[in-house]
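Q: Sequence in, structure out?
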Amino acid sequence: MGAGIPERITLRNYSTFPARCRVSLRVEADFADLFEVKEARFHRRWDESREATAEVLTIGASWQDIRKHVVISAPGAESSPDGIAYRIVVPPHGFWSTRMSVAPGAHAQGQGAQFIRRTKPFWRRDPA
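A: Exactly. Output:
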């Protein structure tokens, strides 16, 4: 996942009337490492935790002494432990669009979750 995964969501309204919508996204994370995925072996049972605050959902997991988490940022959304939801109105013959991102977090020794810092938003990064 590296520095994160950006996602753009766009809804178009081809009607002559405004469309009131609730867009809900259920969010899951498996925390498998590369070799578990390649070898199709999943032996770990992660203890999962979820924390929802305003526009951010954090999913954490622990197994023995290993701690991991991902941070889902969704500006303008309502977050809950299950996922992200938007309440929107798409204008007639118009569209609604938003960006969200999923980024790995890190735990510092003796501290809580720390965010990976970025200098540019995901959608403005230069191509590799």
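Residues 5-121 form one domain.
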